[in-house]
């Protein structure tokens, strides 16, 4: 049985990935597309500068794009996927949730709000119940659920697998693809034969969001995980796929074997878009690589390799597809979780 | 007064950089070029696939390339710069030193030998006296001096500046240029739209060499520095310039200001190829960047930026040109030090 | 009913594409893999440095690689796909054909031999009968069939569509992907921030092969097409997909509309791997583009756009995936044609 | 004796190249910088996102940027270099010329106007006298002089050298660097692992401008050259340097030797920024290449290679640095010509 869904911010890089994943989705049907005022009233084909390596799906090509406005969203579309710029998300998402829509959002606004669950279904599905607190406190009929930043999503499943050893301290360096900044976010002159050692706000997102995702939830309040996280975020000349070097310091001893095994055994979620295995581990220290491994699990898997012991724990590399697993796919997974848990 | 010098391994990527820097050098004159047997007897123009963005210098273009063999080196060339593959370096450098040549080598063999000084003149020029021990022990008339790996050279001047705060632990992630692997080291299919999260042996070189460079020397024996270093080395699609994310944990408190100031004030060496300042610091957190900053100080400076405090110390980014400051220029600086200290 | 096939040169860039396409093929079953002596006896997983963006297929991963030698090929493998270096192809292909194997070869040797058909099934399937002449003249039980060079394949279907207007003169500039040179053919230092305006032998291949493909065959002898072709071949920093700028001078008038229509209507072949449509035409003058359009028709389509009239005819751009449509897929299409026409 | 000059559109990619070349210029002194209203009143350091691989020159860093407006330009700045967007150039350049300023402009507006000279000093310095016609007709005290498009400049000196053989028809394919579109003109997602086979308006510019540059001027009126030119323009992932494949059909026979010789012997101009030789010819068919050869003649030379005879003439490749020789340097050369010829 198909659930009608809308895509807020459908013309951007993540919006197009939402279209890619929702077009063939077994349970969801694209019923509304929104974008900025400039695109409203145009066909999706005309409004989106389609940038994926296959033709724009027929199901959406001639659909008329709507303005991103509560009045424009049909009432019979209960679930909205949001990939809005954060300032727009901040302005419209609460109103939509109040109006009764359930919003599964990739936008960075409100991710750290105490009553907004930040969820990766394979990691902290139990945080979803925070929506009850949210509804109580805000008086909303709908709901607002967030997925983390793409660079956070790449790392956190591997940390979740290691938390049995007592995570205390994490250092992480990222090598992030240009698609993470949207279609026009990084110019060619900035990145050809170059790398940029800073992505505004990204370090803080990784440091904060990972502690929320691995935090405890007692049914009423969410505690951040006690570990320290320090991130250093770099932009490089790859199209898709964030690669990360991680050092995880743990309270208990961890060997390379036990770390790799914990990741390989980390459970998937019983949701249509959750891959099995969730974490693909490599013995070859040169893997994972963005071009070769970002499409594992149809772009929804995380991969890890290069395990080495350190005096304090273990170091390794991890990777995921930033606009599939790290953005559009993350929101859709959360939508699947919302559907299964009866929030629609 | 000009000193006649030879270049061992003159046709490779570092060999060509040695030619670039030595051709206009005020004190050195290129008198001999060696390469593999296959190149011996050919003109340098024919033997080297010149890959720099200016024409091959006239002074060497028609010079006949010699085999890399002690018998082939003229006696009146006291100083040899070596950029040989390490297996070749291991085979021929000791014999050349025994035969009386002073070898300033960029090759990775023997760098950690207890009686082989590993030197960055601005950091540990005092280690040069280890050559006396070397001569005593090995009975050599000549000498063998090493510079560190390009990725080590990028980081160590910044660590030297911070050691006043008591270095205890270093984590470093590198984003290394393809030229570091030589002209044919990285294929285009490996690196376009990609990154490789491992460089064989490189992590260990950074971890070991940095402790030797910052170690103490009492005139007889060299102690490694007590800090722990963990490196994670990545290859990316840049031509030149290694960018590194560093976390330095220190015994004493260090602020971003004191860290940046310590680097900006770190002294240069009074040698022709040592830039002033040695370390260029940026306030813009998006700098240094490989394409924009690798040529600072004519390619001999290190640059640093992105300073942030951490619970244990400070994190920052640093950069240098890997085949100039990190390889050819490093050997030449060591040659200048050898000349000044009377080893020729 | 499945035909057992072998892949000669299975570890290279085209060999891996042959594995990719043959593994799920409805009519062919991979029964033998050959490579150089150095790889013989190893598992395919160990011998091939698998470079595609999905895992190595299970069906071949543990298959033992054989030496490329007639004695090593099992007798019950009637069809061999060859992606050997041309010098190896020249040495072994005739012997295999003599020994009774039917060889569908992508190697560049013998392509212009008068009794070796050079075939693109959608363009000149009738040339296949030249195999009768070949068998008569050479006394072979098997056969040797060639597909053209990847850059030729990209252009020739579009020229075939235009030949109704009387082709007289063709100028073509290519922007070719690095995969066309094999996994190690182009180094990263050669191509990053660069382009190379010459590919040895490629210009001549395009100029000669296109005239043979469009030539007439009377059942006994093959006449080259009378048009002149001048090619200029460039290597650029793309992974896959050859883009070409073509000027076609014709005897009759041709408008942009009639040119585009002739291409859009050009018939596909009734073979499993022939896409429909064969030629995808774009109105957007910025298309086709390598990254966006190389996978049209599962990588087997040609695309064209940018039509403009000239004083002598029409200019346009065309594109195809060089290692799928232009190499591995071309050989497989020829294998399908051989099977249908009863040569196995 | 130094002439005070202004730069209109000083913050863009070409504007920064103008700063680079004018800062050390022997005869010109930067006295005014203009940009859009948004930049007006700010320091050049703050207004320009400096993107060159050396620090911003001290002479301009703290200079206050002015609005691009006749009222804002000081009276004692007789010569203005313009790299304005063409719509802005169209709006302000005539007024400046009328107000008495001599404008040497790289902007694309007005290039084909019958009374606006379009000049490459080494090719058609005699066209400068068209300024007399311009002043007569328009009643201007100043003057407006244009240089051609970067892709035109690369090709035209080589055509000028061949015109002794009677140019009849030219086909040209370009492989153009991203800097030609300005700092934000090409996004990274558009060009990584990709090429774009069309640049809006560029084909027509090459086709028209080259005929004007090589046209005859009788002192009163300018005739376009009679040759036909067909261009196909591609954007590729290079930072700087336009590479072009040219076929020149000539009335008289031309050999590869005579073509190369005509180019190698083509005279330079006796102006400070004109390189000698103007055209650097290569025997190696793999040259010129953008990364290796764009800086020949300090970025002001054209290079050519890959000569092959065709049935109608000769084909070859040529290259120049698009923002130095092709834009900023072209305007400065024209400024030098204006100074020498007494127009200031």
Automatic annotation (TrEMBL), chains A, B, C, D:
Protein name: Aspartate-semialdehyde dehydrogenase
One matching Pfam family: Semialdhyde_dhC
GO MF annotation terms: aspartate-semialdehyde dehydrogenase activity; NAD binding; NADP binding; protein dimerization activity
Single biological process term from Gene Ontology: methionine biosynthetic process
Stated family: Belongs to the aspartate-semialdehyde dehydrogenase family.
Catalytic site: 150 (acyl-thioester intermediate), 242 (proton acceptor)
EC number: 1.2.1.11
Domain Semialdehyde dehydrogenase NAD-binding per the UniProt entry, residue ranges: 4-131
Keywords associated with the record: NADP, Oxidoreductase
PANTHER family assigned to the protein according to its UniProt record, in alphabetical order: ASPARTATE-SEMIALDEHYDE DEHYDROGENASE
Gene from which this protein is expressed: asd
């Amino acid at each position: 049985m198909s659930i009608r869904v809308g895509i807020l911010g459908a013309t951007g890089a993540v919006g197009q990935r939402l279209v890619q994943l929702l077009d063939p989705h077994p349970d969801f049907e694209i019923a509304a597309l929104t974008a900025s005022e400039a695109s409203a009233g145009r066909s999706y084909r005309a409004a989106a500068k389609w940038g994926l390596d296959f033709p724009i799906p027929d199901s959406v090509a001639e659909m008329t794009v709507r303005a991103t406005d509560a009045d424009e969203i049909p009432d019979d579309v209960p679930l909205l996927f949001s990939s809005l710029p954060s300032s727009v998300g901040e302005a419209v998402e609460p109103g939509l949730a109040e109006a009764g829509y359930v919003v599964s959002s990739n936008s960075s606004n409100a991710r750290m709000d105490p009553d907004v669950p930040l969820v990766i279904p394979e990691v902290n599905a139990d945080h979803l119940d925070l929506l009850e607190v949210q509804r109580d406190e805000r008086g909303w009929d709908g709901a607002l659920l967030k997925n983390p930043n793409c660079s956070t999503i790449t790392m956190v499943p591997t940390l979740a697998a290691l938390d049995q050893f007592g995570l205390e301290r994490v250092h992480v360096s990222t090598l992030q693809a240009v698609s993470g900044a949207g279609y026009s976010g990084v110019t060619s002159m900035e990145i050809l034969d170059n790398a940029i050692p800073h992505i505004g706000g990204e370090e803080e997102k990784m440091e904060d969001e990972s502690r929320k995702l691995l935090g405890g939830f007692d049914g009423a309040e969410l505690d951040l995980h006690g570990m320290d996280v320090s991130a250093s975020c770099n932009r490089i000349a790859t199209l898709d796929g964030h690669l990360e070097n991680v050092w995880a310091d743990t309270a208990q001893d961890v060997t390379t074997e036990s770390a790799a095994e914990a990741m390989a055994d980390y459970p998937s979620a019983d949701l249509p878009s959750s891959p099995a295995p969730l974490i693909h581990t490599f013995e070859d220290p040169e893997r994972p690589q963005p071009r070769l491994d970002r499409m594992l699990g149809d772009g929804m898997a995380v991969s890890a390799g290069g395990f080495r012991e350190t005096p304090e724990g273990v170091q390794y590399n991890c990777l995921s597809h930033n606009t599939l697993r790290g953005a559009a796919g993350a929101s859709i997974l959360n939508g699947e979780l919302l559907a299964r848990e009866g929030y629609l």
